[in-house]
Amino acid sequence: NRVKGLLDCGDSADENASEMAADGGSSSLQLPCVFSPKSRQFLALCAQDGRLRIWNTDSKTLHQEYVPSAHLSATCTCIAWGPCRTVKEGPQRKKRKSEAVQVEEKADLLAMGTAAGTVLIYSTAKGALHCTLDGAHSGGVNCVQWHPEESLLYSGSDDTNIVEWDLQTGKTRSKWKADHAAVTSLCVSPDGKLLLSAGHIIKMWDLDTKEVYRKFTGHSTAVTTLRFATTRPPDSNGLYFLSGAAHDRLLSVWQVREDGKDKNSVVSFTLTDEPQHIDLVTSNSKEEAVRLAVVCKDGQLHLFEHFLNGPCKKPLSPSCTVQMSDTKESPIPIPLLAAVLGADTRTVMLAYGSHLQPVMEKVEINTAERHVCLTRDVQTTLSLSMETTVSKVKTPIVNAKSKVLVPGLPGHKAPLKGTSQGSEKRKKDTDTKEMSIAERLGEIDLSTVSEKGASKGTASLTTDNFAVLLVQGLESNDASILNKVFQTRKEMVIKKTVARLPLSAVLPLVEEVTYTFVLSYRAALMVRWLKAVLMHHTSYLASLPDLVTQLGVLYHMIESRVKMFHKLTKLDGKLYLLMTQVSANICSVVHSIISFNLTSQELSLSHKERMSLSSPHFCSYTPGSCEAVKTQAEKFECCF
């Protein structure tokens, strides 16, 4: 029944899941999310705040976090794990031959392409930046790919160039122009001899000579995914690779033939949306099937299994489709972020939820069923993972006599949620000239009136007073104070007021803005406050563990309003055309009535007056006739 309910949701559920999978956002930009190779021990992803977070899939906790120094101007656009290697974690005692054991290779280096044209190499063993590769790209880096054997890295950029980096020296080893368009995807063959690059046209390069080996055309949009599906050499007609493009619901499989007759794709896999994350188990022979797991932009997982042995005319449907929802009576889809296949055909490692707080889980899926729906309580899972996380923030223990000092504003010394004690009385200083709340509210009224020009009073209320009033209104939950503060329309005053708020008042302000959004006549004003909060306090909001629950109501409210915008625009256009036609009809009726009245007046004139009308000196109406026509026109317009 739950699967049927999710399928009955139709396109609306797919759109919601797609937007949730992109985290509101943005939107069209896909956030990088990649599992580490082989053991799948780590999950690396970049969220909207620009930070690299590495999660441990075994303990389901945050392992490491890296904040690039220029993460606001150099957004991370792509992530790629390097080949597993032996990592020396520190000085160790030299062991005897009898004590020698085989050292396990672990995933260590992680390459991050940025919008500024640089490539950052991060080391998980060191927990710090290993090196920075820059100076070769003049545009943003769209894709990075490691060489499977040598210490080489390839990067594609908007400047249409491919750069081969030598990680031992940290310098450019080779650079060549790939195409006339931006390079959006790269893939190195398992043997390290061939390189696939794509913009709109897919090209296969010989890495020894840096010359084009083959060209493949068939996508109308930019190619976002390239994967080799087999490990067989290209001279045996057994080399296959697959490609996916933006806004394309098909994965195309291409065969590299020895005779060069490989102009069209041989197999197509049907999807429900644009592919976002792909994992596959390559085929080593014709008798071995290719296993494929594709997570689409709508948050669904599709599993395929196919023997690659020549062309297939009909597009192949997934053998199993996996969706996830919550445990409520009316199920809401939970977006899947990434998925990797296990050694067993039934085992899949899933990452779902939000990029800020993902949930990792290894599940067994019954692939005999075409549609599988997994139900999870995301809030309970998040709370359990947060309890097991080792926090580095120490909470001080204070007693009743301790005095708490919090970052605040000039003139505001009380904590936001401090308990008031009845035994302590507030001392009043007769020499101080600090304004009371009533005086500040009066100043707001005075400044509002002076903006409209109705009064010439001078407003002496400063931004600090606005911030203090806002904090006091949030503390006391006083609607009158909040309404007075929210009435301001000056963008600069709003920005400075929000910038001066203490961190403890940010979340109450967001909740108040969310509540006020329900009132349609106040929504336009609240947008300015929400914009200022997101500009100044995004990093603080992203650090909150329960951000998804706090901003969930606001997100869905904004989403519903945006969906109605297109319909309202159509209605506005229709009303404009209707009013234009009505006004045109009114003008034509007015002119016809005026001409009729003038004709009747001319007929009632005497013969002498008619002779005067026919004289050449009659070039205008007399004042009396003009006034009569004007009066009749005004009466007619009043009727309408």
Task: Provide a quick synopsis of the model.
Keywords: Nucleus, WD repeat. This protein is of the alpha+beta class.
| Average of the residue pLDDT scores | 75
Task: Tell the overall outline.
Answer: globular
**Low-confidence parts:** 7-28, 386-395, 406-432, 446-461, 616-623
The main sheet orders its strands as 21-22-23-24-28
Beta fraction of the residues?
25-35%
| Cα separation of the termini | 59 Å
Instruction: Note the main sheet.
Output: 5 strands, mixed
Number of helices: 13
Using only C-alpha atoms, the radius of gyration works out to 34 Å
Share in helix: 25-40%
Report the strand count: 28
User: Looking at the chains present, what oligomeric state does this protein adopt?
Assistant: single chain
* Content-based structural category: alpha+beta
How would you characterize this protein structure?
This protein has 640 residues and is α+β, with helices and mostly antiparallel strands. It contains 13 helices and 28 strands. The chain has a 5-stranded mixed beta sheet, covered by helices on one side. Strands 1-2-3-4 form a 4-stranded antiparallel beta sheet. It has a 4-stranded antiparallel beta sheet with strand order 5-6-7-8, with no helix packed on it. β14 (194-198) and β15 (202-206) form a beta hairpin. Residues 7-28, 386-395, 406-432, 446-461 and 616-623 have low confidence and may be disordered. InterPro entries: SSU_processome_Utp12 (IPR007148), U3_snoRNA-assoc_WDR (IPR052414), WD40/YVTN_repeat-like_dom_sf (IPR015943), WD40_repeat_dom_sf (IPR036322), WD40_rpt (IPR001680). Residues 423-433 have a biased composition (Basic and acidic residues). Belongs to the UTP5 family. Residues 477-578 form the Small-subunit processome Utp12 domain.
